[in-house]
Amino acid sequence: MSRSILKINKKALQENVKALYEFTKKKVIAVIKADGYGIGATYLAKVLENIDYVDAYAVACVEEGIELRKSGFRKKILILGGILKQEAKYIQKFNLTPVVSHSEHLKALEGLDVRFHVKWDTGMGRLGFLEEAINDPRIEGIMTHLSTPSDEEFSKYQISKFERILKLYRKMPSIHIESSAGIVYKVPFATHIRIGLALHGEYPLTNYPINLSRVYTLKAKLLSVKKVPSNFPISYSRTYVTDKEKKIGVVAFGYADGLMKSLSNIGYLYYKGKPVKILGNVTMDMTMVDLDGSDAKVGDYIEIVGEHQSFTQLAKLAGTIPYEIMCNLSKRIKRVLY
After folding, report:
1. How far is CA 165 from CA 76, 95, 115, 128, in A?
2. Which residues have a catalytic role annotated?
């Protein structure tokens, strides 16, 4: 019934996790916050749950952790975004592991028998302690966050600073700093890697040292295929006008589904492996494409992301990052594991 579909390749996802694990020799914390970067956290967890070297999931907030627990997933769940007082009771109830990055988070956990991780700000300028001495027998993990993994000098500064901070603590079972991009530093004292984007088969850096498998195929059906005359305006505001008679397709996918409006008149989708240019403004539910020279008909699928185009490539055309497009994927897109 769905006009658009996101196919999730289980084998490709498993291959990516395995490649990351084998490259680093460290257990994996799978970051599936923001509903699995828009893909669907429960779909990802179904694939990851029985992989031994996936040690934990990481989400942004308590609500996301509760959703995973209610769906039956049993691995450790880190709450990366801290813990507020009114949320603390759910930490114990749903066996969640908060990341403490502020004194108020510690206060929220007073009197509770819960394990937690401590986050230090070594240069991200977001969450994390700076100079405070945080010692508590309930601490089971220490972490920090690389702000610019592509900047080797600053990343090594952060790693060095983090190593000094670790001297404040006894041996910890969980120490993590390396992200999808950060694994290139092979931090010797870290025990885990914290992986998001690379799980999805998207390359976080150029010259990435691991070959990743493409996980997703995102496609939507054609609602209309017709020929329009020369000098005919296409879509809102008439930002494109035909220079000749042209075959125009209307794809059942727009900015409400996650296709950025900034792709208007510059982006490409694919039909039977061949690029078809977006014409005119992307609209809420529909996008027009140039189908000249094709045999496309109503009901055929147009590929948005897949074999011929990654989220990263699409994001580059849109002037954004792949995370933004992925996180904006609509609930009305049917998700299928295969």
Report:
1. 25, 28, 20, 12
2. 33, 236
